[in-house]
Amino acid sequence: MGSNERNKLPNPYARKPLLMSRLPFSLVVLMILLSVLVVLLVMLLPPNKTKATCSSNVDNTCPGKVLVEHHYSLIKERDIDGHDLIHIQTNDLATLKRVCDLFDECRGFNSNGWLKTSVSSYQHGPADLYVRQEPLGPGKSNQPSNVQTEYRSFISNMKIYVYDMAIGLEHHPRRIGGYETERVFVEQLLKSAFVTQNPNEATFFFIPIRCSSYILDYSTEHEGVIEAKKILGQILSEIKQNHPYWSWSGGSDHFYICAHDIGAKVGSDVLKNAIALVNTADYEDPYFIPHKDISLPPSVSPGLHRLARITQGGASVDPVTRTVFAFFAGDLKSGRIRPTVWNEWSMDEDFVIKTSQLKPNTYMEYLRKSKFCLVVRGREVWSPRLVESLFAGCVPVILSNHYHLPLQGIVDWNQFSIIVPENEVADLKQILHRVTSQQLLEMQAKITSVYQHFVWNNPAQPSDAFYSVMQELWTRRNVVRYKSKSPQAKTRQNLQGGLH
């Protein structure tokens, strides 16, 4: 190709000046004046008005709009092809963030001043891309909505009374993989503003059991389960003898956490009405009741929590570098579905399957460079691989029938995961190849906006796993039935707004 021919090729980064050149001069001037006016208005706003205005207003009586301050993930040297909202005549990042916060349609912006209505597909470019993270909090809209009102009500009114128990303290909290969720959740709950010392204002009552500690302190699971059930019976007996609160609702406004594989079965004899927070959220489990119980985001090792901070749900990973089609690491010799995955796909060149123990850094590197990560049920439906893949921005492929996925009331799993029935393992490759490049980019982009809901932070932060689980619990308050006619129950019912 000659030099003259090369000079005729369009510059991909010059598309906006070319577009502007086709517009009438008066319209161009008007657009420039409008962007300048927006910048001036934003500069006049108080710096922290977004957080200070009406943050605790539940009844929408606060005058004016409620502006939401978002967080933004940085993706270096990435540009969006089209999807322009408006161009702001500044490269000041603080100003661009505040302008983007003003528009519900804004999904992010380039450092060159272009605000974007979509960030699902991007390419290499001279500017940096800032992707807006949608908060779990008051919502993305600057106008009141039912979702925003419900969230403010949750933050303002959720109260938890924690029973003070000495029973079972000889068993120490466990720090093993997904079971560690028990310890982390209890620690964050006790430090939170949700805890109340007044049982009459409590939305729920927390029974402080540690079933994983009881079970794992024994050499066999059978012995551990017997011990766990014995301790549970002792705890409930003390609650009934020394407190009136259980009888107020028959225990339906009480909850406990059990991250062990046994799940809600641990309390089947004595805690039938109580809400169970469990990892084993299996529709086939007769002890798990979906409309009552809550599926937990599994906890992961500290190293993989660092992956969440570094990778930001894949926001810092260039999709071009994801050269592995599908990845799995772990034992595939046991379980009802894992041997089938091994037999079908262990020799396929598109699948990277590692059955030996990987070093943490090697494992994280595979997660970062994979498009799809297999989440295959083992003995039970759940696996920490579910959240590990989200931390790295790898689209989870869930091979586990009847799994009630975590936080279904907050996130839409269909937008960022592939759910494959166990009887279709033989068609897995064909199913994944049906996902177009555009659909894959959209799922990866969605992961960057939801992954924080699965991170167990210390201390807890709004929109993380702890707050998300607590919000799921808040929605269960309408399941409670107050049957007692005692004066205490009636007083509490009035305080709770007559829930029924």
Automatic annotation (TrEMBL):
Protein known as: Probable glycosyltransferase At5g11130
Domain Exostosin GT47: 157-434
One BP annotation, GO: heparan sulfate proteoglycan biosynthetic process
Organism domain of life: Eukaryota
GO MF annotations in UniProt: glycosyltransferase activity
Regions crossing the membrane: 25-45
Lineage, highest ranks first: Eukaryota, Metazoa, Chordata, Tunicata, Ascidiacea
Pfam families (alphabetical): Exostosin_GT47
Alphabetized UniProt keyword annotations: Membrane, Transferase, Transmembrane, Transmembrane helix
Family: Belongs to the glycosyltransferase 47 family.
